[in-house]
Amino acid sequence: MADSDSVRGGYLVIGRVTVNVINRRVLPTVNSLDHGKNEPKAQSSALFEFWTGGSLVHPTIPDRSRVSQPLHPLQKFQLEVRVRYQETDAQGRVHHATYPNYFECARVEMLRAAGISYAELEAQGVLLVVTELGCNYRGGAVFDDLLVVEVETVRARGTRIEHQYTIRRGDEVLVTGNTVVACINPQGRPRPLPDYLSSIPTNSHGN
């Protein structure tokens, strides 16, 4: 380990790159834990180097995604979305029913960026279903707009995860929203969240 490397709270910091371990796998969490500096943000298809098992790996960040800089990889995430023509209505604006799809895309890509495949979760009998959805519209996006969808985990306990969302076009907030996701088994019965989901740190102190 080089002099510039360190371990903070289970995260291995190698220069300006942070590596954490989930389910005994080494995963990148883009940028270091030093939030006081202007760290470069991940760009679509950008490559980041991280150290694992004595070899240097170059993972590709999924297209249309950009990771923010939280302490925990499942605490906050940003996804870039380019509005497609088929997502607009006769008025030329993004149809209101499209925004919850953006919410879902952000949740799935947040899991993927943390090294967790939702498809693998379902194969293991862990299903996450939306039980509550709220959406507040402040403005309308149009074809070819580049939007940033931010998802934040505000509570994760028992069988439920609560998320909040903000969709921006530049500095303009277009949509805010929230969801409650419940964890069930393949028979449709509630089941506890896996430890790596129920242990997500949040700012909520509710019951």
Walkthrough of the structure:
With 207 residues, the chain is mostly beta strands. It folds into two domains: 1-61, no CATH class; 63-207, Hotdog Thioesterase (Thiol Ester Dehydrase, Chain A, Roll), CATH 3.10.129.10. It contains three helices and twelve strands; from the N terminus they run E-E-E-E-E-E-E-E-H-H-E-E-E-E-H. It has helices at residues 99-113, 118-123, 195-198, and strands spanning 6-8, 11-14, 17-22, 25-29, 50-52, 55-57, 65-66, 76-82, 127-137, 146-157, 160-169, 172-184. The strands form three sheets. The chain has a six-stranded antiparallel sheet. The longest helix has 15 residues, at 99-113. It is elongated and about 45 Å long. Mean pLDDT is 76; it is low at 4-70.
- Helix count from the secondary structure assignment: 3
Quaternary state of this entry equals single chain
State the end-to-end CA separation. Answer: 42 Å
* Lateral strand order in the biggest sheet: 7-8-10-11-12-9
Estimate the mean pLDDT confidence: 76
Largest sheet: 6 strands, antiparallel
- Specify the overall morphology: elongated
The residue ranges in which pLDDT falls below 50 over 5 or more consecutive positions are 4-70
CATH topology descriptor of the largest domain: Thiol Ester Dehydrase, Chain A
Number of strands: 12
CATH architecture of the largest domain: Roll
Helix/strand class: mainly beta
